[in-house]
Design brief:
alpha/beta; six-stranded mixed β-sheet; four-stranded antiparallel β-sheet; 10 strands; globular
């Protein structure tokens, strides 16, 4: 049996009295796409940050390609992080850099690639997300929200990573542009053969990009399964969330 690309076992994380991750156990095989759904505050972003090493879990194991990464020294962690690409929720482009410089940022700063070679790679990745050379010399502020998200996707795939994280990839986009981004994600990931974890509230996006889905609720994975099976999960929490119903076991804390 092949080693999972990403493997979490009984991962816990609390901030003071608030438990955010409460015993997370999940495997992601190489080349697979896992989408984690759940409401705000359910622990999705903390989960990604723990895998990336930005936050250290209180207990539990996180393995990348079978290697334990919790507690790795900084130099070793940097080696592991070279396997990762990331599409941040807001795009997180650098306002002071032109589009191509944003895409090439990791290549130049992280891999010490020569500027000309990095620019050529950036142009290649911009073309992969449907943007031409005319866009490369623009500033992020000159782009629409959808174009900014495409540039952020080009940056995420620029180093041809083995693992890519997508943090709310369609937030703030109209339904048509969101579907364009979903298609680009699917195509780019397929071409790279990358393993991905995405977190999203957008069920249309989740259904389109996921092989498997997992739902986080109050720090626990309450359901994990094939994306095609989510409508017949038999889980009342999952059913309420995917259909966006106010009535059900998930309650919102509202001030009256």
């Amino acid at each position: 049996m092949s080693t999972p690309k990403i493997q979490l076992n009984d991962v816990h994380k609390a901030f003071g009295p608030k438990t955010v991750l409460d015993g997370i156990t999940v495997d992601v095989p190489a080349g697979h796409s896992l989408v984690v759904i759940g409401g705000s505050g359910s622990g999705k972003s903390v989960l990604l940050k723990c895998i990336l090493g930005l936050i250290r879990p209180d207990s539990g194991s996180i393995r990348i390609d079978g290697e334990e990464v919790v507690g790795l020294p900084q130099r070793e962690r940097e080696r592991v992080l070279r396997k990762f690409g990331m599409l941040f929720q807001g795009g997180a482009l650098f306002d002071s850099l032109k589009v191509w410089q944003n895409v090439a940022f990791g290549l130049i700063q992280g891999q010490r690639m020569a500027h000309n070679a990095a620019r050529d790679k950036a142009m290649e990745k911009l073309a992969a997300v449907g943007l031409g050379s005319d866009v490369a010399e623009l500033w992020p502020a000159e782009l629409s929200g959808g174009m900014q998200k495409r540039v952020a996707l080009a940056r995420a795939i620029a180093s041809e990573p083995e693992i890519i994280f997508f943090d709310e990839p369609t937030t703030g986009l109209d339904p048509i542009m969101a579907d364009v981004i979903n298609d680009l994600i699917v195509n780019c990931v397929k071409q790279l053969g990358a393993t991905t974890i995405s977190i999203t509230h957008d069920m249309h996006s989740a259904r389109k990009i996921a092989d498997r889905m997992a739902m986080l609720y109050k720090g626990r994975m309450i359901w994990v399964g094939q994306a095609a099976d989510i409508d017949s999960s038999g889980n009342a929490y999952v059913d309420q969330f995917i259909h966006g119903r106010a009535e059900g076991p998930i309650t919102m804390d509202l001030r009256r």
